[in-house]
Design goal:
Number of strands: 3
Order of helices and strands: HHEHHEEHH
Number of helices: 6
CATH superfamily of one domain: Winged helix-like DNA-binding domain superfamily/Winged helix DNA-binding domain
Radius of gyration: 19 Å
Strand order of the largest sheet: 1-3-2
CATH topology of one domain: Arc Repressor Mutant, subunit A
Helix content: 55-70%
Largest sheet: 3 strands, antiparallel
């Protein structure tokens, strides 16, 4: 077994800073979303993903893949959102086992009401703290890591 490549001081500082920032940012954005719109982060993710599709519907399996959730976990969450009138579920015409999640008018109103405050919070707690160069660097590094992890997952599947 190879000897571990321990992080040097600079790398360790960057790694720990990223982890702390991510936890604090996620916590604050979730808190503001819940207080301002009465939505959880998963609610917002479901509603925003649905609202961005042409027909405002997605297969449950595709939505689960986008959210990196199991189908079972998302199915339970969708059931709770259905009870609140935010989404409905339809059977998939081409696959009797699949289902389609559909944005309701109440769900559309909820995401339209939540989006301005959520975007303002993202700006306030991240985007507006960065220079144009830092935003470009953040975009480049996040896409590089996402591409690496996506490629790896695809080769392991």
């Amino acid at each position: 077994m190879d000897e571990p490549r321990w992080l040097d001081e600079r790398e360790d500082r960057a790694w720990r800073g990223y982890r702390r920032m991510r936890r604090l940012l996620d916590l604050e954005l979730a808190r503001e979303l819940t207080q301002g719109a009465g939505l959880s982060e998963p609610d917002y993710d479901v509603l925003s993903d649905l609202s961005e599709t042409p027909d405002q519907r997605l297969r449950l399996s595709e939505l689960a893949d986008r959210m990196l959730w199991s189908r079972s976990r998302l199915s339970h969450h969708i059931s709770r959102m259905q009870q609140r009138g935010l989404v409905t579920r339809e059977e998939c015409a081409t696959d009797g086992r699949g289902s389609i999640v559909v944005l309701t008018p109440a769900g559309r109103r909820a995401i339209e009401a939540a989006a301005p405050g959520h975007v303002a919070a993202v700006r306030r707690h991240l985007i507006d703290l960065l220079t144009a160069e830092e935003i470009a660097a953040l975009g480049a590094l996040t896409h590089r890591v996402v591409d690496h992890l996506t490629d790896r997952a695809a080769t392991e599947a």
